[in-house]
Amino acid sequence: MDGWAMPFELKREPVRMRQTLPARDYYAPEIFDLEKERIFYQKWFCAGRQEELPNERDHMIREVLNESILIVRGESGMLRAFYNVCRHRGSKLCDGAGRLGSAIVCPYHGWTYSLNGRLVGTPNVGEVEGFDRSEYGLHAVALETWNGFVFVNLSANPRPLEEQLGPWRDYQRYHIERLRSGWRVVYEVAANWKILHENYNECLHCPRVHPELVKMIPIYRRGSDRGERRILGQQACRRRDHLLEDGPLEAAVPARPDRGGEALIQRHDGVSQPDARSPSGPRHDLCAVADGARAHEGRQ
If one looks up domain 23-201+236-292 in CATH, what number appears? Predict the structure, then answer.
């Protein structure tokens, strides 16, 4: 483009060799338990785009870890998120995406909730001493939006989304809010979640695996042309000890001074989709799981 110049100079810098994470970090159940508590139950996940729910009563379901999350646009146009389980017997309330009726109705016993999560109907359950319907609304999930993206957080006291986004906050000049989703693809990958992110964060495989991409973006032919601080793939091995501070695995999994946890969720801090990337089971294979009967009070 005439008159256009690269805003910064691309130059190759010396790169220091780093080891990957220890093998057990990819399969040990206790490591995954720690990741759940320190990452998946604490961080914001991108659930989609606001335009996916343009009208009142539109809803969609997203899976974060083994939790099914219902996201709905209410009467006032406000987006809200709830655990997708009925407060009566834990039945899953909704599937897929689409338009709700005037309320959210459990398919099992017909318990009915307003679009703001309030319990408004309990068929065949009369007045019972000690049963206050106002105390049995749907469990809410924290939700925030940013430039058209919808984020959810399973923590009862999440930190502000902007703190997690970091430099992403300054991308307004790209007018991300004007983007519209063309289509959505969900992959279920039988691998540890970190392997998926590590593969995404490096392009050493691009020349052989993605020749079409390399043809479109020639710089990928070299895998990366950025210095150590810009190579995202290496960040997955940094600051790992952050996750282990004061944690139960501090002795079992020695912390290394050049590794840590923040980078493990670097793409989650951006705009990654959470579903089909959620670990499950001892080997935490990646799959989308709807577990409607899980008890949520422990994190509420």
Answer: 2.102.10.10
